[in-house]
Amino acid sequence: MPVIEVTHLKKRYGDLVAVDDVSLTVEAGEIFGVLGPNGAGKTTTVECVAGLRVPDGGGVSVLGLDPRRDAAQLRQRVGVQLQESQLPDRLRVAEALELYASFYRNPADPAELIDKLGLGDKRNTAYKKLSGGQKQRLSIALALVGNPEIAILDELTTGLDPQARRDTWGLIEQVRDSGVTIVLVTHFMEEAERLCDRVAVIDRGRVVALDSPAGLVSAVAPEQRIRFRPSTPIDDRLLADLPEVSAVQRTGSQVVVTGTGELLHAVTSVLARHQIVAADLRLEQSTLDDAFVELTGHRPAN
Amino acid sequence: MHAFRNILRTEARLYLRDLPTLLTTIGLPTLILVVLGLVPSLRKPDPTFDGQTFVSYFAPSLLVVTLAMVGVNILPAVLATYRERGVLRRLATTPAHPAALLAAQLVLALAGILASALLLILVARLAFGVPFPRHPLGFTLAFILGTAALLALGLLVAAVARTTKAAQALAVPLFLVIMFFGGVYLPRFLLPDFVARIGDYTPPGVQALLDAWTGTPPQPLHLGIMAAIAVAAGAGAAKLFRWE
Ligand SMILES: Nc1ncnc2c1ncn2[C@@H]1O[C@H](COP(=O)(O)OP(=O)(O)OP(=O)(O)O)[C@@H](O)[C@H]1O
Ligand SMILES: [Mg+2]
Question: Looking at beta carbons, which residues of chain A come within 8 Å of B100?
Fold first, then answer.
């Protein structure tokens, strides 16, 4: 059952078309990623979903409701972490969470949330004195404090160190496992691959691809490459004749086999049949990074 | 309502935590009063001031200090900062409306102004024998309207200015003008007559305050102008205010 439906969304800022034509649906309980280069219209799209911006065209439906007309209801049920949003300098961590918790009918326990996000020893620290990553974690906590059914997280882990990023991923998986649908805007391909059930790639205000991370990779950049050193000389044709193989090359003593589909299985079967041991065998698959570049012509900002 | 109460409580805490600002807004006028009051000649009745002391004559101008500081300096600065840093926007994603935060700031501004005025009036009475305002109703009215006019102007500044810097750029000249015409920089008897007359009509309307303090009912025109400024600036602010 879709919980978010966006159809032909359009949004302009003056003459600038920020979102040209975006359609997507987010299913209940999934982690849905939104990828795209800077200025692609990701934030604008999710802000329309969150009811913070009025679309110029197209439709948005969230939990079967209209983000503008039913704003009051949706604010209870949707948690939002904005890309750029701070707090008053002197506000302390626990105060912020307690205040925000008080706005909701069924809030999470602020103290528990503080611990979960690793802010336990900062609960009485003023916002001004938090590090960038700690501010980011507080921001995530504020988006979750209302026990939302949907959490929209714009640039979840930007500014976090690698450890904190992994911890946050674990947290997001926990949140998803408790039944929350998550919309995640991100620039980190690793994050999308690890967390997202499906991702939409947005470029210049349009959805250029929408699939699971693995689906995107195999659709856009299906090439795989196997490198190994055969224990005894091998006739290239044995491999080249396989339907999965598109090319066989040699660099020194190394054989490089390029192909698609069940390439690894096909190649290792042939080698086994001829009792050839493949030393230093490595499989190189395209990553979401490659797919991203292919789709948008940009390197992911990383 | 519930959200408003919690926001107000939190904002009040933040307000109390900012001790330097708190002490300046509430204590500065009284401090100036005390310093002036320590000069003996300023405590003597003087025909220049219809037989009042200079301290009595100058007290209403000291009220202007807090009103101008809180109304056109602090209030717009805080609101513009909250907007620029996305505090208002974040609030807009929750069931609480950012207007609750604006209302809380207004309440705090009002509380600061009241505390400062009460302190000034009390210290003036106890330390320097300046009588309590002799026309209490007129004084209350003049004070409310003057305050409303300045707070509305402050909101207008916050509405028009996109950024904190812009808010300051607008607030500083406005502040200087208000202080000047309010007779803070130069006591009004030293100002050319036409300048003093202009001052009767610039918020918060120091002449109406002086009249009521000394027992004359404030002139309806003075009060009317303050009410008009409050309504016009308030309406402008409501129309122009942006939450992001
Ligand atoms: N409030 C605004 N007023 C005018 N233009 C805006 C506004 N917000 C965004 N834009 C423009 O709209 C386009 C899309 O911006 P948006 O913030 O949606 O991009 P994004 O995909 O989130 O980018 P990033 O990855 O950098 O966060 C950009 O060209 C941006 O300059
Ligand atoms: Mg963005």
Answer: none
